[in-house]
Amino acid sequence: xxxxxxxxxxxxxxxxxxxxxxxxxxxxxxxxxxxxxxxxxxxxxxxxxxxxxxxxxxxxxxxxxxxxxxxxxxxxxxxxxxxxxxxxxxxxxxxxxxxxxxxxxxxxxxxxxxxxxxxxxxxxxxxxxxxxxxxxxxxxxxxxxxxxxxxxxxxxxxxxxxxxxxxxxxxxxxxxxxxxxxxxxxxxxxxxx
Length: 193
What we know:
Helix content: 25-40%
CATH topology: Rossmann fold
CATH architecture: 3-Layer(aba) Sandwich
Structural class: alpha/beta
Strand order of the largest sheet: 2-1-3-4-5
CATH superfamily: Flavin prenyltransferase-like
Largest sheet: 5 strands, parallel
């Protein structure tokens, strides 16, 4: 999808989107992504890994999404519903992990549920789409382990958004760049059709 005119944002109206944010420098773009979903009429809740806080403020994401951000698997404020991760997974129409670091991709691929975000990924209903948008430096993206992990999660039924090719925060140029929002929105919309 090359531009917003080619995507039907109306599909997002009244949809519940669970956005997972991991420790990739591209996390600084997630506030604008949350705004895109909100403008389209979606309800958004955010779960962050502890590493993501190094790149984007939970307070900003909470204010933009109009919901508290979950960061700690054992946060007393979210545990009032018992198995909160099950409730969060059942609440959403789609879960999007964007950006997804190499570390989080590896955890999803290999069943390592050691933080709130990954726990919810594993608690998703079988028919709830899990869309993963890897974003990292070229060498990390092209590393055999990362490529293998991407194939594993795809074989398990998740949708991988291929990273863009372009300028990276390291100063290098190549694949690994966080896709444009219209690409991400297009994948989310297609998963809901």
